[in-house]
Design a protein that fits this description.
Helix content is 39%, strand content 23%. The chain has two helices and four strands, in the order E-H-E-E-H-E. The strands form two sheets. Strands 1-4 form a two-stranded antiparallel sheet. Strand 2 (24-28) and strand 3 (33-37) form a beta hairpin. Helix 1 packs antiparallel against helix 2 (42-57).
Length: 62
């Protein structure tokens, strides 16, 4: 699993850990699915945001 621009398994978690993030998480409720990402500061968040959005908008589900 990955995304169109980053077609590698686990790349999002790898980059998140390098940006001092606590990793990624998701959960599904009755009426929605939420995806979580927590970073230490805004620098790490801004670095990982484009990659995270690409995983949400252009996933490769293989």
């Amino acid at each position: 699993m990955g995304s169109k621009k980053y077609p590698y398994k686990g790349v999002l978690d790898l980059i998140a850990n390098r940006c001092m993030a606590s990793g990624t998480n998701a959960f599904t409720a009755q009426d929605h699915t939420a995806y979580e990402l927590t970073t230490v500061g805004s620098d790490g968040f801004l670095k990982i945001l484009p990659i995270y959005i690409d995983h949400l908008l252009s996933p490769t589900l293989t």
